[in-house]
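Observation: inputs received (chain + 2-acetamido-2-deoxy-beta-D-glucopyranose).
Thought: call the complex predictor directly.
Action: predict_structure
Action Input:
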Amino acid sequence: GPLGSLEVSVGKATTIYAINGSSILLPCTFSSCYGFENLYFKWSYNNSETSRILIDGIVKNDKSDPKVRVKDDDRITLEGSTKEKTNNISILLSDLEFSDTGRYTCFVRNPKEKDLNNSATIFLQVVDKLEKVDNHHHHH
Ligand SMILES: *[C@@H]1O[C@H](CO)[C@@H](O)[C@H](O)[C@H]1NC(C)=O
Ligand SMILES: *[C@@H]1O[C@H](CO)[C@@H](O)[C@H](O)[C@H]1NC(C)=O
Ligand SMILES: *[C@@H]1O[C@H](CO)[C@@H](O)[C@H](O)[C@H]1NC(C)=O
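Observation:
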């Protein structure tokens, strides 16, 4: 927003479809024109019944990669890098199960901007096969 510079993006797609048993990259990048120090990041999962933290950690500065603090699931790995121009804190989710369907929120908080935080959410739909989908209709 106009008051801060901390931007978080999960890309253009609002829903990602992926096949049961496969792996999927859930994208997330962040940026701040004030820079960052000891930035806190968190991916959380949420469906109608539960909400939980999947992975979280700290990025010390723009010369270091993220340090993972807590990881809730062996099927999750943090991908990307925060040493490049694009601060990439995407996660790879493997061995997908139908119960992985839900909202995935990427959250960051920047102490350098008085703990300004921001987040972005993507919806993952695990399916048994990929149908041809377009932006307007989902054909069954
Ligand atoms: C997809 O899910 C079904 C039911 O949970 C399971 O039996 C099957 O093995 C899964 N397929 C893959 C490729 O994991
Ligand atoms: C899941 O996220 C939605 C939208 O952010 C929120 O309204 C809902 O309360 C959350 N559910 C749980 C169980 O946290
Ligand atoms: C983030 O990193 C992953 C893994 O290296 C890569 O596949 C993806 O394209 C990167 N995303 C961006 C926006 O650079």
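Thought: report the result.
Final Answer: The pocket of 2-acetamido-2-deoxy-beta-D-glucopyranose (ligand 2) is lined by residues 46, 50-51, 103 (CB under 6 Å). The chain has a mean pLDDT of 91.
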